[in-house]
Amino acid sequence: MRFFIIFMLMCSVAQADVYVTYDNKTNEVIDFAPDLDLVMQKGWTREALKGDLIDYPLSHHATYYKYKDGRFIMNVKKMSDEAIAEEAAKALIEEEALIQKRIRKLAIQELKNEGVTFKHVKED
């Protein structure tokens, strides 16, 4: 019984560190993890934080934050830029689909004008 109490005290006192790695100039978070498996690059800083990942509730992935003065600050500009880029990519895909549809329709019509008969091709 005594061993169990000592063991429980040791477990409650021992807290693992988590590590935040961020860019020195921009303060953008590069990594936030319980281990040191990230290879450091020039211009990055790594700080050990007491506790576990669950002690630092972030509403988004850690790379959407900046780390400054011991606090995580949401990087709204990065999130906005990514949302704009995502919308542009979706619009581009839709435009390319329209172009492909038109090219297909024109190609089918040209071939019909040349006398080609289609048995299996469906016109959209």
How would you write the strand order of the largest sheet? 2-1-3
Silhouette:
rod-shaped
Low-confidence stretches: 3-13
The main sheet comes to: 3 strands, antiparallel
Distance between the termini: 78 Å
Calculate Rg over CA atoms: 28 Å
Range of helix content: 40-55%
The count of DSSP E runs of length 2 or more, i.e. the number of strands, is 5
The helix-and-strand class reads alpha+beta
Order of helices and strands: HEEEEEH
Percent of residues in β-strands:
15-25%
Rounded mean pLDDT score: 84
Secondary structure tally, helices: 2
State the domain count.
Answer: 2
Describe the overall structure.
By secondary structure, the chain is of the alpha+beta class. It folds into two domains: 2-74, no CATH class; 76-124. Helix content is 40%, strand content 22%. The protein is built from two helices and five strands, in the order αβββββα. The protein has helices at 2-13, 76-113, and strands spanning 17-23, 29-33, 44-50, 65-68, 71-74. Strands 2-1-3 form a three-stranded antiparallel sheet, with no helix packed on it. It has a two-stranded antiparallel ribbon with strand order 4-5. Mean pLDDT is 84; it is low at 3-13.
